[in-house]
Amino acid sequence: MKLAMVSGANRGIGLAIARELAGAGYRLSLGVRDPRRLPKDLEHFTELSFAYDAADPGAGRAWVEATMAVAGRIDVLVNNAGVSDHLALMEEPPLPDEEAEAVLDRLLAINVKAPFLLTRAALPHLCASGAGRIVTVASMSGKRVLGLNAGYQVAKHAAVALSNAARRTGWDQGVRGTAVCPAFVATDMTVKHDELDRAEITQPEDLAKLVAHVIQMPNSAAVAELLVNWRYEPGF
Question: Is 152 an annotated catalytic residue?
C-alpha cells in the first residue's frame, strides 16, 4: 500500500483529500494542528497523526522523519496547509508598513516557505518510490490577478512555481508534481464571502476526487497544473 502525507488534513480541502485517498487504498500520514481532533473515520487508515505547524520551519522535516520511522516509505505528498490573509497594495485607511510586513511574512511563511521545506525533506523518499507524486494546493490566484489581495496572489504564484520546480527536480526519478489551482471552495476560508452561493461553488469533496485521479495517473500522463473553477472566466 502506498503512503500519502497530507498537510492541513483536519478540515476543509485537506480532510476531503485524506478521506478520498483512504477510500482509494492509501495509507495516510496526516499533518494536523491537533492530532486529538482527527475524525474517527480516518483512524483506521492513518499510520501517523503528526502535530504539524506550518509556521514552524523545522516541522516539515520532523514530520517526514517521523513518517519514515513509522511507515518506511513516502509515495505522495499533498501540500495543502495554507492561509488566506488579506493584504492589498493600497488600503483606505493605509495599513502601517510594519503591520503589512507582518501579514506578508505570515502569508509567505505558511503558503510558500512551509511547503518548500516540506517538499525538500520529502523529495528523496518520493524519488525512491519511482512514482512519487506531489500535489500543491495553490489557487486560481496563483494563475491570474482578479481581486485586490496582492499578498495572497504573490504567495500563490510562488506556490505554483514551487510545484513546477519540484516536478522538474524529481522528473528523472519518476516524481510528478501538480499544482491544483481552485477558485472559491466551500471551506471555512470562504465563509466570509457572503456574496457566494456555497451550494454552487466548488465543493472540497469534488476537488479531492480530482486530486486522487491526478496522483493515480501514470508517469507518462503527468498533469503539471490543474485549474478548477465553478464559473466561467475568460482565458481559462
Answer: yes
- With bands split at pLDDT 50, 70 and 90, how would you rate the model's confidence at 43? confident
Q: CB under 8 Å to 182, separation ≥6 — which residues?
A: 13, 137, 139, 140, 202, 207, 228, 229
Residue 164, Cβ density class (10 Å: 0-12 exposed, 13-18 middle, ≥19 buried): middle
Looking at the predicted structure, is the pLDDT value of residue 190 above 90? no
Q: What pLDDT, on the 0 to 100 scale, is given for residue 165?
A: 98
Query: In whole angstroms, what is the distance from residue 16 CA to residue 146 CA?
Result: 27
Helix intervals (H) in the chain = 12-23, 59-71, 97-108, 114-129, 150-170, 204-215
Strands 76-79 and 225-228 come out as unpaired
* Residue owning grid cell 490577478: 145
CA distance 214 to 223: 7
Residues 6+ away with beta carbon under 8 Å from 184? 190, 193, 196, 201, 202, 230
User: pLDDT tens digits, residue range 148-169?
Assistant: 999 999 999 999 999 999 999 9
| 24 within 8 A of 2, measured Cβ to Cβ | no
Active-site option among 26, 52, 152, 232: 152
pLDDT of residue 116: 98
What dihedral angle (degrees, nearest 10) is formed by the CA atoms of 220, 183, 5, 158?
80
- Cα–Cα distance measured from residue 74 to residue 109, given in angstroms and rounded to the nearest whole number: 24
